[in-house]
Amino acid sequence: MPYTKLWSKIPVTIAFSLLITAGSSLLAATAEELIERQTGNNPFSGQFCDYTSFQASVVGDRLLMFGGNLTIDKGANSKEKRELEPGFQFFSMFLNETFQATASVSEYLRREPDPAAEKRIASMRDGGAYSYNGDIYFYGGQQLFNAGDDDLIYKCTPTSRDIAWNSAAINGNVRRTITKGASVDASSENKGFYFGGQNIIAKGSDDAQADRVLNGTLSNNLIVVSFSSGKQEFTNITASASRSRPLAQSNLLFVPAGKEGILVNLGGDDGTGDGAWEDLQVFDIGSSTWFNQRTRGNLTSGNSRYPGPGTCSVVQSDGNNHFIYVYGGSNRAPGQSQLAILTIPTFQWFTVSKRSYPSKVNAQCQLVGERQMLILGGRSSNGRGDCGGNSFLEILDISSLDIVSTFPNSNPFTPPPLVRTASNSSNPLDGWTDPELQGLYEVQYQTFGQRNRESKSEKGPIIGGVVGGVAGVLILGIIAVFFIMRSHRKKSTRDVKEAVAEVKRNNAAQPFLGQPSPAFISGEYPNAYPHGHPPSQSYKDDYIVEAPANPAPVELPPSTPAMRPTELPS
């Protein structure tokens, strides 16, 4: 049948719906601009020293690490051992492999290819990385060059064959210009969060203040990134200083409590060297409300009252009890070799110090499996003449509280004896600072997917009631028709049956259709560099000698064969 005749037979409402669907699909396809596609990776062959201010995210069975400052050990014959690696850093670890953390770093760490120099992709330190539907979105951080891209973020799509980079726009009156904040990926809610940090970033990678917390520049805004198919929405939530004080380099953690989960913000630096340790900041996602909660316990670390900024954290749950593990810390000094554990809902601190614990500051922590906390990178010493015996990877068993070497461990998590007694209570030892927080905690948490399925199942009885009502009307109609036909004996029984059948046909021709989804239209994305790409610049690091100029890495030719091992499906 010719297309014109076929189209003429489609009802107008359906045709209009098809046009909207096709238009929205086209817009979704063009909304993100492909910047570059990379192939190939190799084992890391350098002599690791320090790795700080980078971002980490898990996609499927692969842990990816981006950006930051990497220093290489130049060897004993060099006057100053540390040398800053130029260019954009991009590493990966496959979490479905068995390895020993004590082995050479090349056994488990792979170096991904650098994005092309002229693209300037995600070449940053600090910031947040959020995983959704196989993609990684980047927000915040300091670009290592003069970039005019405050309205753009970058998106990375790693597959078993290659890595595709795309740009994406920011909406909701949110700018990318923020650094030294705290980020958390709440994947069970399809959301990412970024709190606080500095809202003034020195443009140019060679600024001497680039790695310092600057007084008077701290923010207490919470940026919320909500993900759904084909789009991401940004929201800026400003809190009052009495509920949420401005902090830099704090730890933001997602805890599965309350209707939609809560965020716990702790540690960091408020510009005076103190952070949120005794009084924590708690954010309820469902109501977008900040609360405060006082803690109890001793957090003394060495000569300091608190661990200080530069810590890294993970959270693990056992029923309604939640345990936050905070490792290392004490920025601008040799890293702490201490572990602090916060129990929720008792909000009590415990500290653990062991000789086997390595000193770390500004590391990244990731919970893999149920009981292994990977402590990645970081710095162990401020001495320019040595690397401090630092190791790229340490593995902490959060049940036994021991540093272990074998990865992975598939055993289930059990709370360590140290905190088991505290987890028997359902209330803070000193009571609830905000009574509303108690009622929030008593609500059983369900993931976004669980709430969605429950919402759909609740519609069944409603639809059943509607159908039942229609059936009742139909029966009444049949009875009415019957009596009408009876009063008009000119009508035959055959006429009644035909009338009832017509009612049924009319009812069947109008099914219960869901409301069509609206099309989400996005504007065209602006050019990140309307006046051309700025020249490469060198930059300084507070802890090492001045870095060499940042040369443009050679872009891989298109014919380079893929060397990536086959990735297991997530």
3D architecture notes:
With 570 residues, the chain is of the alpha+beta class. The protein folds into three domains: 31 residues; 407 residues, 6 Propeller (Neuraminidase), CATH 2.120.10.80; 56 residues. The chain is built from six helices and 33 strands. A five-stranded antiparallel β-sheet has the order 1-16-15-13-12, with no helix packed on it. It has a five-stranded antiparallel β-sheet with strand order 2-10-8-5-4, with no helix packed on it. The chain has a four-stranded antiparallel β-sheet with strand order 17-18-19-20, with no helix packed on it. A hairpin with an 8-residue loop joins β6 and β7. The longest helix is centred in the C-terminal third of the chain and has 40 residues. The protein is globular, with a radius of gyration of 29 Å. It starts with a helix and ends in a 62-residue tail after the last helix. Keywords: Membrane, Transmembrane, Transmembrane helix.
List key phrases describing it:
570 residues; alpha+beta; Neuraminidase; 5-stranded antiparallel sheet; globular; disordered N terminus; disordered C terminus
For this structure, the quaternary state is single chain
Q: Which term fits the overall shape?
A: globular
Strand order of the largest sheet: 1-16-15-13-12
Query: Would you tell me which CATH topology of the largest domain applies?
Result: Neuraminidase
Q: What is the CATH class name of the largest domain?
A: Mainly Beta
Biased composition (Pro residues): 550-560
InterPro entries: Gal_Oxase/kelch_b-propeller, Kelch-typ_b-propeller
Transmembrane segments: 462-484
Region (Disordered): 524-570
